């Protein structure tokens, strides 16, 4: 069987033969070894057939031998196509240029991903990579292999334990494992721990330093609790005293809570009105009835109409109406006190540190005066009272 | 002698299960409906028009008639004919 693909690459032609019968032509073709196909009878002594471009010379010889006329009707295949394309050099140049650009761009480095580090280390890795020539827009032809990149970075950077380099097409991916450096605690300057307020010592946890106090001792503000001075007199060394001193102290808080209160709430019934505003006049468009209650809250949103940035005198007004309900809340005195306590605790906790514990609370006094409950409360609190105070050395 | 050869070939086809077209130089026809006919072992085209194809055989002629005939492929001993095939018959010389 014939091979279409092969014919197209070598080129073939449709010929019309006159003054010869197909039988004699076919016979002669086989004698000369000319491949022919799709022989179609048109009329007596006229037919068409396909022949290969490579048999052109033999065909001419045959035409002489059979004294027939051969007319070429169609020319097909790659050689003819190339000839046609040579007339369209711009198109060919465009296609070739596109392929060239595609190859060029696909061989560039487009992204560099660095994973597993903090920004500082990432910056350093990036810097080293840039020195090696690995940056956005670099050509991959001139870049070393990933293994070499890996070796180089690991040699250059001290803070890196291991770095994994992988290349996915046009992107490089770096997986960095940093050396974990055990950070030493910043050495604070030498100093004592002093009391931040007047309190009774409840407990103390001294990490460093010389405690000068005992539990249940009363301290004033500024008293040294834990000294940073160690050793005997004359041979003293100074350190930074560290620790926690839990002191107990008291607070008096006064709170006023109103006994009755009027609250307005929204019931949930709403209505929506649409209107068209022309100048100062509003013409209702949709939603005429509205709410039929006395107490309501209105909300108006108006939107100016604009055409190409120019204001028109028209605007669209949407009015939302919400039904309101007012509730008088009479509070029992007991409840009021409870609320007062709550408020006082809240107020207190804002003033103290997070670790503070309220160990006791007591209502000292409560009076009702002018629709308000006045409550004074007494709180017992435990909190850290130690504050660092640097030692000023030298005389 | 020729008669003996002919007899031997026929005997081989009948008793040795060998294909007749190979041994006896007969044409082998493969038809696909009315559309195609594929002929092997022919001895050349005697006549070709769009309604008739005559092929020379070792003995006699093979005539294929129909309409809209096109010789799709032609090789020294093979031919593929396309068209609407109506009759296939043999003519003795």
Give keywords.
heterodimer; A: alpha+beta; five-stranded antiparallel sheet; 8 helices; elongated; B: 93 residues; alpha+beta; 2 helices; Sporulation protein YqfC (chain B); Spore_YabP/YqfC (chain B); Spore_YqfC (chain B)
Q: Given the helix and strand composition of chain B, which structural class is it?
A: alpha+beta
Number of distinct beta strands of chain A: 22
Give the low-pLDDT segments of chain A. none
Record the strand order, biggest sheet of chain B: 1-2-6-5-4-3
Helix percentage range of chain B:
10-25%
Q: What is the straight-line distance between the termini of chain A? A: 114 Å
Number-wise, the strands of chain B total: 6
**Major sheet of chain A: order of its strands?**
11-9-15-21-20
Q: Estimate the helix proportion of chain A, in percent.
A: 25-40%
Which series of helices and strands of chain A comes N to C?
HEHEEHEHHEHHEEEEEEEEEEEEEEHEEE
Describe the main β-sheet of chain B briefly.
Answer: 6 strands, antiparallel
Span from first to last CA of chain B? 22 Å
**Uncertain segments of chain B of ≥5 residues (pLDDT<50)?**
none
Chain pair with largest interface: A-B, 18 and 14 residues
**Overall outline of chain A:** elongated
**Strand percentage of chain B:** over 45%
What is the global morphology of chain B? elongated
| Cα gyration radius of chain B (Å) | 15 Å
Alpha plus pi helix count of chain B: 2
User: Would you list the SSEs of chain B in sequence order as H and E?
Assistant: HHEEEEEE
């Amino acid at each position: 069987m014939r091979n279409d693909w092969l014919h197209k690459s070598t080129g073939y032609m449709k010929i019309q033969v006159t003054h010869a019968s197909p039988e004699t032509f076919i016979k002669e073709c086989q004698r000369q070894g000319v491949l022919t196909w799709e022989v179609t009878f048109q009329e007596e002594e006229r037919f068409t057939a396909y022949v290969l471009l490579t048999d052109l010379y033999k065909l001419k010889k045959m035409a002489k031998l059979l004294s027939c006329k051969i007319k070429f009707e169609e020319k097909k295949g790659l050689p003819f196509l190339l000839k046609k394309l040579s007339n369209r050099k711009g198109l060919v140049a465009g296609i070739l240029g596109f392929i060239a650009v595609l190859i060029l761009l696909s061989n560039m480095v487009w992204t560099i991903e660095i994973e597993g580090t903090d920004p500082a280390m990432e910056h350093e890795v990036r810097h080293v990579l840039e020195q090696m020539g690995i940056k956005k827009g670099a050509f991959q032809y001139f870049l070393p292999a990933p293994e070499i990149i890996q070796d180089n970075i690991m040699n250059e950077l001290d803070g890196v334990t291991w770095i994994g380099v992988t290349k996915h097409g046009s992107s490089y991916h770096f997986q960095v494992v940093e050396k974990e450096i055990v950070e030493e605690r910043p050495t604070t300057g030498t100093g004592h721990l002093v009391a931040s307020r007047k309190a009774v010592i409840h407990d103390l946890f001294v990490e460093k330093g010389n405690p000068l106090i005992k539990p249940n001792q009363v301290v004033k503000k500024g008293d040294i609790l834990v000294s940073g001075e160690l050793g005997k007199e004359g041979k003293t060394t100074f350190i930074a005293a560290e620790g926690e001193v839990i002191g107990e102290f008291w607070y008096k808080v006064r709170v006023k809570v109103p006994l009755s209160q009027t609250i307005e709430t929204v019931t949930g019934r709403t209505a929506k009105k649409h209107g068209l505003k022309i100048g100062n006049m509003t013409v209702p468009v949709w939603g005429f009835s509205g709410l039929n209650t006395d107490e309501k809250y209105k909300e108006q949103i108006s939107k100016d109409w604009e055409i190409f940035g120019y204001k028109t005198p028209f605007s669209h007004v949407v009015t939302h109406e919400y039904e309101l309900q007012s509730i008088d809340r009479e509070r029992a005195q007991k409840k009021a006190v409870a609320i007062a306590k709550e408020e006082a605790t809240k107020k207190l906790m804002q003033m103290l540190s997070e670790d503070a514990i309220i160990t006791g609370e007591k209502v000292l006094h409560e009076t009702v005066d002018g629709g308000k409950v006045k409550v004074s409360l007494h709180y017992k609190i435990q909190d850290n009272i130690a504050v660092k105070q640097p030692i000023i050395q030298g005389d | 002698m020729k008669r003996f050869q002919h007899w031997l070939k026929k005997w081989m086809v009948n008793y040795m299960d060998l294909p007749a077209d190979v041994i006896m130089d007969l044409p082998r026809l493969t038809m696909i409906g009315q559309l195609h006919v594929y002929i092997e072992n022919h001895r050349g085209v005697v006549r070709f028009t769009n309604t008739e194809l005559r092929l020379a055989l070792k003995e006699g002629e093979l005539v294929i008639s129909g309409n809209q005939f096109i010789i799709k492929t032609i090789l020294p001993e093979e031919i593929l004919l396309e068209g609407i095939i109506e009759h296939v018959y043999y003519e003795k010389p």
